Amino acid sequence: MRSHPILEASARAGVRLGLNRVQTFLGVLGEPQLCAPAVHVAGTNGKGSVCAYVTSALVAAGYRVGTTISPHVEEVNERIQLDGQPIDDARLVDLLERVDRARREWVEVAGERVEALTYFELVTCAAFLCFAQERVDVMVIEVGLGGRLDATNVVRSVVCAVPSIGLDHTAELGPDLTSIAREKAGIFQRGVPVVAGVLPPDAKTVIELAARRLGAPLWVPPQLRREPHRDGRWTLHTPTGRVGPVRLGMEGVHQGINASVAVGALHQLRSQGFLVSDEAIATGLEKAMVPVRLETLAPGLVADGAHNADGTRALAAWLAKRDRPGSRILLFGMGQDRDPSEVVAPLVEHFDEIVTTRCSHPKARESSELAHILAELHPMVTDGGSIEEILPEVYAEAQETIVAGSLFLAGAARSLVREGVLEGIEPGKGIEQLDEAEE
């Protein structure tokens, strides 16, 4: 389901950080956020991947798992998952209507404004209600923005994880890594174990101090191996030893770090009585998948949700280890809240051409504006207009096309491929194919 009138109405409330509204409303719903222990995951990049690895391993171990992610790539259903699968439309509509009905009653009693819950808060409450109804054994919860004031920061955590911290959402979280790390560390709870990824020194110091202050045991995977073995498998460290060699369901050197954080979290769960074998962990790591994380959508077409400088640096590292197949084009689009030059800079040397585009998301930046800004970085920059029109053309022209800059853009490309817009077209064979494909 792409949208719903209840969600569209709540979206008008914008983004409002704070816990008072959601805590009060969850009390009205009967405290569903306390229905099961939670693995709570914050961070700048890698949150979704860590949640996928943890969820997949717990499902392989036989547990009933409720997972929330944010944002979704194609459909809202992705935000509420049972055993790693998005709930269906009928279930989502029922949950939204139940939550909205309770919200309206709450508004009448409490005198709150009709827009008392934001889009994210409403979906988060719906997720908790779903998990309570399903009596899940454990929840895997991805933070939406920051951590300390995020609507998810109401759960009873048994493990907290922070795979990465970088400069992103500075308007909401603060201008530097120290400020941002402090917001991420706001999910830590007294005595609850914390697993962190490879963090910048300033951020690492904040995380260490926050964990120490709360008596929360902190584990960081050692940096002994940053790349897979020659056969593509990884040996991952745990708090008590190693797991592997194992294959990962997602590509990229950065996935080794994400998987290490997930394995650390799973071992912390094991120490608390969860029965998660090494075999279940290996199975979970191999089966885990998150859309548009270096996902091959078609031969010669890869979509990646990289939308900040840290994300594009990870994408650049992946590209650097691949043979260049001939002409390689970056199909790039992004939102209005970031510096395009900063995001694209790590990618410039890996592409013969950059084509700017935009999807239908209301916050997408105009492709013409992006082309003007990026012209200073690369000698071949073209304004491609909408993703619907330009994707077939770029795909026909380039031997390899990479779609990046926004999760929503990558999701739009994924939807278009599933709808068949590239049918009859081969990468790099020329745009004259388009007329033949239409015939």
Distance between the termini: 32 Å
**Annotated CATH architecture of the largest domain:** 3-Layer(aba) Sandwich
The CATH topology of the largest domain turns out to be UDP-N-acetylmuramoyl-L-alanine:D-glutamate ligase
Alpha plus pi helix count: 16
Number of strands: 16
Shape: globular
Give me the CATH superfamily of the largest domain: Mur-like, catalytic domain
Percentage of residues in helical conformation: 40-55%
Task: Note the topology.
Blueprint: H1 5-11, H2 20-29, E1 38-41, H3 47-60, E2 65-68, E3 80-82, E4 85-86, H4 89-110, H5 119-134, E5 138-142, E6 157-162, H6 170-173, H7 177-184, E7 194-196, H8 201-213, E8 218-219, E9 234-238, E10 241-246, H9 254-271, H10 278-287, E11 295-298, E12 301-303, H11 309-320, E13 328-332, H12 340-344, E14 353-358, H13 367-374, E15 381-386, H14 387-397, E16 400-404, H15 407-418, H16 433-438
Helix pairs in contact: 1-5, 2-5, 3-9, 3-10, 4-5, 7-8
Structure description:
The protein has 439 residues and is of the alpha/beta class. The protein has two domains: 5-287, UDP-N-acetylmuramoyl-L-alanine:D-glutamate ligase (3-Layer(aba) Sandwich); 295-438, Alpha-Beta Complex (Protein-Tyrosine Phosphatase, Chain A), CATH 3.90.190.20. The protein contains 16 helices and 16 strands. An eight-stranded mixed sheet has the order 4-3-2-5-1-6-7-8. It has a six-stranded mixed sheet with strand order 11-12-16-13-14-15. Helix 3 crosses helix 10 (278-287). The longest helix has 22 residues, at 89-110. The model has no long low-confidence stretch (mean pLDDT 93).
